[in-house]
Amino acid sequence: MRIWFLFALLILFSTQNVQAADKIHLRGIKGHDDRVLIEKYQYPWSAIGRLNSEIGGFCSATLIAPKLILTAAHCLWNKKRKVWFKPHTLHFLPGYRRGSYNAHAKGKKFHIAPGYDPKKINNLPKSANDWALVELATDISPVVGTFALAETSPQAYNRLKQRNIHYVQAGYSQDKAHILSIDNKCQLKKYEAKLDVVFHNCDAVNGDSGSPIFYLENGLPTLAYIHVATTRQGESQGVAVSLKRIVSYLKKNGMWTQTQGASKPSVPKSSNEQKQSKSQSSALPSPLWR
How far are the Cα atoms of 102, 148, 159, 246, 258 from residue 255, in angstroms, in the given order? Predict the structure, then answer.
């Protein structure tokens, strides 16, 4: 009996050690896990949400205009069927936490980055075009607020670096799928001017795709990059798309006037909080290149 008891303890400890090792080696965590959970969804956290797909996967997204969110393009691609999701099958849930959320809006129309091909091999040039804009069917900005957009460039990157700007990354990680987690110790490592991407050390994993990397300007959030991937070879680095091409697209297509800077919520959150539909699965998305 004593032998079986010791054997059971050995199995228990072995399982715990394996689970701990899996957590430590979760790709996208650079060294120590610096993520912090956000329990109260006050602005600006209220403008960041989970983007749920029809097949149960999810990514992260940010409201940048009354009816417009920014996310990663691969989040809108159904890998199993090799087709784009239909816009109305996507659900944006800003302020999502443990089954409740501040607001809810369905997709209405996509704007996929020019040059993005979901069927191509995953590499850095592909990641440079891995962004998408989703027009929403309803305006939820009075409830959750919006982010301002930075007109990023190599020059702007260097100017902010000289000012020692503090960056924050916030998203819905695969291991923290039901609550927003943030890394407020983010550091940008390099701006790749040819592709307009930056390498960073934010602790971002699966599910964080499309999540904002932003800074505060006069107390208001300014979105500068969105996380889209983690490198596979060598030292693990996060890859984020610069807003340079995104801002250019918005201006070219007459959508820039919609993004009129950061705005705080004007409607009390408590009166608009809702419960998540049981039909919206919490299954994780297929992993990106890692």
Answer: 25, 14, 27, 11, 6
pLDDT at 267: 82
8 Å CB contact between 129 and 73: yes
Report how far apart, in Å, the C-alpha atoms of 272 and of each of 64, 194, 219, 269 are: 20, 44, 25, 5
Q: Are 131 and 113 in contact (CB under 8 A)?
A: yes
Rounded CA-CA distance 86/245 in Å is 24
Contact (Cβ atoms closer than 8 angstroms) between residue 51 and residue 69: yes
pLDDT, tens digit (0-9, with 9 covering 90-100), for 120-160: 988 999 999 999 999 999 999 999 999 999 989 999 999 99
Residue 75's alpha-carbon distances to 22, 53, 229, 243, 260, in angstroms, are: 25, 8, 12, 18, 25
Whole-angstrom CA distances from 69 to 27, 50, 84, 147 are 26, 11, 17, 10
Nearest to residue 226, comparing CAs of 242, 204, 207, 248?
A: 242
Which two three-digit tokens encode residue 19? 């689970």
For residue 205, the model assigns a pLDDT of 83
Predicted confidence (pLDDT) per residue in 36-53, tens digit: 999 888 999 999 999 999
Average pLDDT of the segment spanning 233-261 = 92
Vertex 130: Cα angle to 78 and 156 (nearest 5): 160
Q: Which two tokens stand for residue 94?
A: 């800003």
Q: State how far the Cα of 118 lies from the Cα of 176, in Å rounded to an integer.
A: 26
Residue 161: in which H helix or E strand, if any?
helix 154-162
